[in-house]
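Support request, please re-run this one:
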Amino acid sequence: MKGNWLQAFGALVEAVDEVLDNSGPEQTLNILGNTTQAVGNSFQAIGGKHILFNNKDKGLFLVISGSWIQAVGTILNAIGQTDEELAENNHVNQNKSVEDASSFYEQENLKRAWGAGNKYY
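Re-run finished. Output below.
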């Protein structure tokens, strides 16, 4: 139960950090995902308390529901973080020349992107 409460607290701290981060419209999914994870962890902790105090059916329902809620929040967070990183990467690499690339791998990616007319590079 303590671990679930700690995870819920951590997810809420991360959601607040995303609100204060102001990194653009991509952060909305991160905020929603972290908040959803916090709710799921809270359900799991409350379910554990019900199981401990002999209300097993209600407790198991809350624990299982909390696990699924947390899983949905994790998926939302993963999508949001991916969108945020891609938007940041596109902004940084916009109009970047091959000569400015910091590694061979980046140079090759830029050559392919320029050759394909990719709007992101």
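The mean pLDDT is 80. Residues 56-93 form the longest helix (38 residues).
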